[in-house]
Design goal:
homotrimer; about 500 residues; mainly alpha; Hydroxylamine Oxidoreductase, Chain A, domain 2; two-stranded antiparallel ribbon; 11 strands
Chain lengths: ~500, ~500, ~500
């Protein structure tokens, strides 16, 4: 393409001028330490991007990637290693991990690969690229529910119906409410902002930039998006930047609770909200500034004195004496025996990260029937549950006595049972409304009593369980999205059934 | 007044004793550096107030005002200047900016000027006083919606009706609900706490103090208040302390998101809430402690790596190479092309900060008609919108590619359209209820279906837009005050109309 | 018990091996400073617990207890003392405050005392134990509402009915909702998580530990729990760890707002929520990192520039010149004249921390009648109210002028009056529904109109008052749980009464 050629020519000139300027501008950072190990391609990237997108260049300059070569990383003692590869391709090994090192990998797989200023660049660096150095993490992640987060919601007809019912634009047609199919953009901003979108390359397009004039870039669908199950143009699943944002690749950010708090939120899955109200959250908020969120391994009592999300769910955690309390994992469900998030009841964790394969006895793609019977063949068994409970208790045991910890888990088990009971009660009222013809079960999510039923399990039962699991947030459990709401809601369902029944009888 | 004279006499004695004591008490702070430049009047203020209100004296001692003279401030390179005046009155120029320097300005304009311990003091330092050194900021602010925030709500009959409907005390009279006129105090604590009150001087009054006995001070109406549009006793509009609190005059505090978060909050304008759940908010919360919130200019990537409210909306923002990404402004709408806050639909920004002058085609003082047609002559045109979009995109471009940024703005445009559609659907149902005589349109805010309609635009549509604009908070958009609520609410409006209709037909 | 004897034997062997190891492992901390003063018993505790629960050992190592002997603490100047005892038992005086020093006290009172590895240990260290060194704090606390928090809710028939109505599991029996008695566990996770549980010793039980095999420990009821009114196995009331968590015994944590924020939360008592939205909360969040939360006494303007909860409610607060603004108290209501929390109206503070003794004119155990008349003989009188208002104003006076402070308190008084009026209006509607037989007053909390009435006082009126008291959170007062909800709720109560009445008339 002609304009590209011109740009490339312009680039050669630019590069000489700008690179010299830029080296000068922050010579203390790039030159002194990194220069000998920085690839010429990355130097070219930096020369322009220091001017065009300086924020991400500075972010990268603050990262470990800009200061360490894979060869250095791989030599560290095993518990201190952040690089899990047994060996690193020789052409990458001795250079710091710069723009080009990541954005040029596996070009044959990347439909988003394009010629940019004379270089072949992928727009999106994917988990498949990251696994060049971090294969263990990518493998763990690939088996998790997170990696399958798109199909788990969009290829499950029940959940898909819920999504469409909520996010489609409603019009008024002759006094009646009609629902459009949700737009791709609104899906990208709501459910799929967390779950991830499918990024495809529609072709190339011209973009007018503020500083470089017109450039030609791949035309991506559903972009930007950084959902955990994003389907990338190279076919891989996931988005590492969801938790290690942009070009700092920070373990600190991922370990702080705000990262998980972008998606695990009130009202459906208020993990972050109840954490903040818990004793652990209180100690974190009061004392975090004294802790070390960058240490690998992470030493309980020294680096971190009260858990954040990552402490319990995925970090490599050791005692001050060096013994391992928990191995690192990027399958975030792997220490969990029960799935608190009720669909529509809380149930044992699924065996596979791909939950769209589940069928319950009623033939529905749900892990539990409407009356609470689990689809056991798709869920982990008692032995595996016990193994995982024991692994989680080892984390608790870093600070708490066995009896205390046992008492905590007994409370959680009771909470699960009672909130499941409260969900069952709501389901029985819903069924009554269907059987009496008061509401129509075709779509179980679009009428008033149905909406109350959804709140019972999706908001209230779930909220109470998360609060219970985090040993805190009593006001959440009592009033805010808790027992008060569970109780009121049942009464409101009962009243609404009675009212609609009476009105219809009088017709 | 006799007692004042006595006090003044007492003061002379006090001053000698206390001033010596006080200088001694914190000599390290006042003496060493500041003493040569501190006015004798301010020394007198400090001598007493160190004892009577030590907290604000310490606050001031931590401020730049206590350490710098205007003459020093005015000499700085242009991008580092915090003083925008071309020249400073000579009597102020060489003294640090102390109590008396601010609280004695323009006494002829200040109805709140009074004799206090022998000095003529204004109770309230106003924007008109601040502009002695900061005229550019005050001018920008004076043209903004914030400066006109009182009349924008109280002199608009529609909004005023909403205010009165909500905040008036309701009594039960013969089983019916009656609504009193809202009290001035409750207005001051609710709407006008943010919008600002009108401060007038009723006269003088005696106040019994804990340490000084009885003193005589101006008797102010609607005081205390620090709302952004406060009408001051000198006739000026605004309250700088709303964002630069009390006597620290901190740029750091103003740039941190908690300041904006005092007013821009759930459920009507949840900017702060969605920011906290966004990627930007996550990075801020995780890494802010490494950034410099006092630097002028503010360098992206160095001083600040993810935006706070001020980054996008008003700070002077530069690249590490010194090029300007955005000029400083204290007209907080000046980088905005669209007003997300729907009244009752989202619409282009108004031309004037005074929105009480707007009239739409229906003759109502609203920027949009009930069916969504904008009152275009009062709103900025396409050219101005494009200019402002470009200015905002330059800020985004500090870190993001042009294509990414364009994708973000496309998402926002779609969100505005779809949430406007969802508001229109609610409006059509409301109109149906009015036409059928189910509810009465005289006051459009005081009946049950009307209240649901208000929620549709004021809470739910607005919330989704703010979340979309900040490229985050997907759970907010999906469930919490988002699409789930928009959808349920329409169904509830529909059911309520049907129910009330059926009941009334059976009479 | 035989197995205990065996364990004790094992322990002797373990101790020699482990203690030597452990000393080596963190010799820098224990040895250098603390060793000479550390008791042999505590050394034995640490030897094992460094391995079994390292987190709490590290927490203790960071505490003042691990570094100071009571003899040193008692010698400090009076305002700097954290130890209020006039003298300390000689056997404790010269040793740092380690595991054994606290967990072995008053064994004759502790039903939870047991032989653990050869030592007689109490599972729970109680306020009665803490008062060995901190008698003034325990005495103040013992007189407070917090110490009586269990009986204040569970022995008051009205509140107990509310608790049972909310937290009991509901079943559907023949289409009707039935309510079970709440389980002890759910009470422990909801109301009693904050209020406290009654901990009793049922006997001994065997517990299988991960690292030590089976051990025998007391079998405690309702454990774990750290509620403020916890009834301990030694008969004492309270849980110091509720605010000074676990083994850091931190004054910093207790002074930061997150601690109070574990229980004083949205929607019934949103003190923490409104604080965060207030000007004080904004300044705290922006600048806390520069303040000293460990200083005793706490100097306004130097150590702390904007109040946290503890500043106004209980810390020893001084001016930079050393004069006392407020004495330390651990009776958290002692600076309060009014009880904002309406039951069902806001009223003067009760005289006794035990509120279960109150009877109003209607014979109900409530501080106010249903129509708003206070049970004055149980409440503090005007003189005492004025004394407390003056004490709180002295705190405000650390930064604010007398006139400003007076203006603030006038606003609060008006808010209390108007929210009480709005509660009365809801009560009148409730009474109408009872008198018309629409709902049944037997249980005033379990039907739909009753539930709306509860929201009026428990959520909305209370929220507005907390926001007003903290001079902020205007959006809270206006929309979120504020006047908008108060107003809508009355309308909804009115509509529901009318609707139910019409429906029943048509039967």
């Amino acid at each position: 393409m002609k304009s590209t050629a011109i740009k490339t020519g312009m680039f050669s000139f630019f590069m000489v001028v700008l690179f010299l300027t830029s080296l000068n501008a922050s010579e203390d950072k790039i030159d002194k330490k990194a220069e000998p190990n920085i690839s010429t391609q990355t130097q070219a990237c930096l020369a322009c991007h220091k001017i065009y997108t300086p924020g991400i260049v500075e972010d990268w300059l603050s990262s470990r990637h800009s200061k360490t070569t894979p060869a250095e990383g791989i030599k560290k003692p095993v518990f201190q290693r952040r690089v899990s590869a047994a060996e690193i391709p020789v052409e990458l090994s001795e250079k710091i991990v710069g723009c080009y090192e990541c954005h040029s990998l596996n070009p044959e797989k990347h439909k988003d690969n394009f010629t940019h200023m004379g270089y072949k660049i992928n727009v999106i660096a994917s988990p498949n690229d990251c696994q060049t150095c971090h294969p263990a993490e990518v493998k763990q992640y690939s088996d998790s529910k997170k990696a399958h987060a798109i199909k788990n919601i969009m290829e499950n007809p029940v959940y898909h119906t819920l999504v469409s019912t909520i996010t489609g634009v409603k019009k008024i047609d002759n006094n009646r409410i009609t629902t459009d199919k949700p737009s791709d953009i609104t899906l990208n901003e709501t459910c799929l902002a967390c779950h991830g979108t499918k990024i495809e390359v529609k072709g190339m397009k011209k973009v007018m930039t503020a500083k470089m004039g017109e450039i030609t870039v791949p035309d991506l669908t559903n972009w930007p998006n950084q959902g955990v199950g994003r389907e990338n143009p190279d076919g891989s699943l996931g988005s590492c930047t969801a938790c290690h944002p942009r070009h700092g690749f920070s373990i600190e950010v991922a370990r702080k609770p705000y990262t998980c708090g972008q998606c695990h939120l009130e009202p459906d899955v208020p993990a972050f909200n109840v954490y903040k109200e818990s004793k652990h959250g209180n100690i974190y908020a009061s004392k975090y500034y004294e802790w070390d969120f960058n240490a690998v391994p992470w030493t309980i009592g020294k680096d971190v004195k009260a858990p954040t999300c990552a402490t319990c769910h995925n970090s490599l955690l050791v005692s001050p004496d060096g013994s391992v309390l928990a191995e690192r994992t990027h399958d975030f469900g792997s220490r969990l025996w029960v799935r608190l998030f009720g669909l529509v009841y809380s149930h044992p964790q699924p065996k596979s990260g791909n939950t769209s394969i589940i069928k319950n006895k009623d033939g529905l793609p749900l892990p539990v029937t409407f009356t609470g019977e689990p689809a056991s063949e798709y869920l982990i068994d008692k032995t595996e549950q016990d193994r995982r409970i024991a692994s989680m208790k080892r984390v608790c045991g870093g600070c708490h006595s066995t009896d205390w910890t046992n008492g905590h888990f007994e409370k959680l088990a009771n909470t699960i049972k009672e909130t499941n009971d409260m969900t069952l009660s709501a389901t029985l009222l819903l069924v009554e409304s269907w059987e009496k013809g008061i509401e129509d079960k075709t779509n179980p999510f679009d009428e008033a009593i149905e909406q109350l039923w959804v709140k019972q399990w999706l908001f209230y039962s779930n909220s109470i369980r998360y609060a219970s699991a985090m040993t805190g947030a009593p006001d959440y459990q009592a009033f805010k999205l808790g027992w008060w709401e569970l109780t009121n809601n049942l009464k409101n369902m009962r009243d609404m059934i009675d009212l609609k029944e009476k009105i219809s009888k009088k017709r």
